[in-house]
Amino acid sequence: MKMSKVLEVKGLTTQFESKNGPLTVVDQVDFIVEKGEVLGIVGESGCGKSVTSLSILQLLDKHGTISSGEVFYQNINLVEKNEKEMKKIRGKEISMIFQDPMTSLNPVLTIGKQIGEVIEQHEKLKGQEVKQKVVKLLQLVGIPRADEIYHEYPHRLSGGMKQRVMIAIAIACNPTLLIADEPTTALDVTIQAQILDLLRSLKDEMDMSMLLITHDLGVVAEMCDRVVVMYAGQVVETTDTRTLLRHPKHPYTIGLIQSTPHQSKGEKRLKSILGQVPTPDQFSHGCRFVERCPKAMEICQSTAPPLYDVDSHTSCRCWLYENKGDVI
Amino acid sequence: MKQFILNRILSGILVIFGVSIFSFLLIHFIPGDPVRIMLGINATPEQVERLTHHLGLDKPLLVQYGQYIANLFQGDFGTSLKTGRPVLTEILDRFPETVKLAVFGLLIAVVIGISLGILAARFKDTIIDKLCTVFATLGVSIPSFWLAILLVMVFSVKLAWFPIANGTNFRDLILPACTLGVVASTMIMRLTRNGMVEVLSNDYIRTARAKGLEDRLILFRHALRNVLIPVVTVIGLQLAGLLGGAVIIEQVFNWPGLGTLALGAIMSRDFPLIQGTVLFMGVVYVTINILVDILYSVIDPRVEMGVKEAS
Ligand SMILES: Nc1ncnc2c1ncn2[C@@H]1O[C@H](COP(=O)(O)OP(=O)(O)O)[C@@H](O)[C@H]1O
Ligand code: SF4
Ligand SMILES: [Mg+2]
């Protein structure tokens, strides 16, 4: 069975203005989200995951621009669309939920209004019909006393409940693709699991595809079909989740796995990756991971490695795979 | 909500009580003998004694205050020394004129201030924004009487569009209201602009954009309401200030409001009238503040809870 692509990102490059000229924050990023799958983007904080996802919907603030690349949504290149056309895509075809539910809802509008307005914007429903749909959505995302919560303001709700409201907003118009940028990072561990369960069941029920951004490999293991590992604005490894967790290729991915607590192995000491993600103005001319890489070689200092195809569904940006795969 | 309003009213009453002590003591703050000051240097000792007795100033302080409060409760604010009419009557005669001027002036301020504020934020860092900043700086640094005189020179003397300082018709109202409005608008504009810029960078604005909402809805439904929260407070304070009588402007335009009344009372050393206007302005100020707080809790649903948690 051949799967169809919902989203194809090709050579996406996003820059931010700075005092010293433009900074390339996201550099030549490629990935595909197939219909019905959950694609994960994983990487430490500051690797460019959020900027990548905001670029897809063109929600960057005015200092950020997509300087090259294409974003195909069902074979339409979104990068060529103007603001007016993008408004028809956002919230209807592609929805997004964000990391911090505490600040993502407007404090002075009721929950009902904030969910209802996206329906009013994209569907020809009015008044009572909208309200009925909103109450159904609240029930669908597991909010008790939906009729009452409809009239409440966000400050009355817990973080988990707010994130459920954000999810209700996102799925209100049956989007094809849901982008979730660290949807559980700001929540307690028990609530995290509940929200992930909810996202998974909604994805199946509503026949959505999902782009799930996280810095947590535990979330990847639980949720994702395939994974893109990002480091310093670039894709460094792409593969399916099983392969990634069992046979990681890139030294960065290996480092990430070694620093993730593993339930079955008990409390072994974790090896964290030394050093920090470089900021865009500090990117090395060679491999961007070179300062932190335990396997760094001479060539890594001077020349940036290309992305090698290691096998039919795995690619890796590292000189160690030079003779094992073809350059893409 | 009821509890919140009740709390505000109770604390308001407390403040008014304080103001009453202040206005009562006002007469005793004056160095020297207030009665002598009132009557001037040529007064005979008999005249001084008669007025002292008339004003009750020969009794113990506490008794005087008790009497003062008792009179206030009967609507007796004393009698103007100059006109011989009850102080309250004098004040209530003038108050409607001050209200007219204040409300109209504030209306102008709100319209100019909020629209320019939104405009400046929408076109942040462009020439439009910079022109608005220049306007705000001028509005703050130019003395209001100077602007008043300028307007009179241009629109009354040169162009003869408006009458010069006579009567209380609508045409007489326009120039003083514009003066007050322009001056008051600059603060509203700066607050609106800065508030708008800040609010537009909030996460919930990004959420609103991610919904595909039209810009109009993002600006007015999502941003402006949050911006208005601090702006409403300032508008309220400005209204309270204007209702206390815009002394200088009323004087320049010869507008028969509380401001000119108070100034006249000071000039003619009419102490009962001064006391009365001070107390009256205090009550107006406190009332407006309570109304603003109530309005505030309507606009911002979090206020009410903050109060509950605090108490
Ligand atoms: N609005 C912005 N202006 C300038 N630089 C930004 C902005 N947003 C993000 N960046 C920079 O882009 C890089 C990637 O950020 P981000 O995508 O938020 O990382 P992640 O989501 O992976 O933690 C960081 O170095 C960050 O400083
Ligand atoms: S290219 Fe070199 S420095 Fe970069 S990850 Fe591979 S081995 Fe490490
Ligand atoms: Mg992020």
Automatic annotation (TrEMBL), chain B:
PROSITE patterns: ABC_TM1. Keywords: Cell membrane, Ion transport, Membrane, Nickel, Nickel transport, Transmembrane, Transmembrane helix, Transport. Residues 95-296 form the ABC transmembrane type-1 domain. GO terms for molecular function: nickel cation transmembrane transporter activity. The keyword Lyase does not apply. GO terms for cellular component: plasma membrane. The complex is composed of two ATP-binding proteins (NikD and NikE), two transmembrane proteins (NikB and NikC) and a solute-binding protein (NikA). NCBIfam families: Opp2B. This is Nickel import system permease protein NikB.
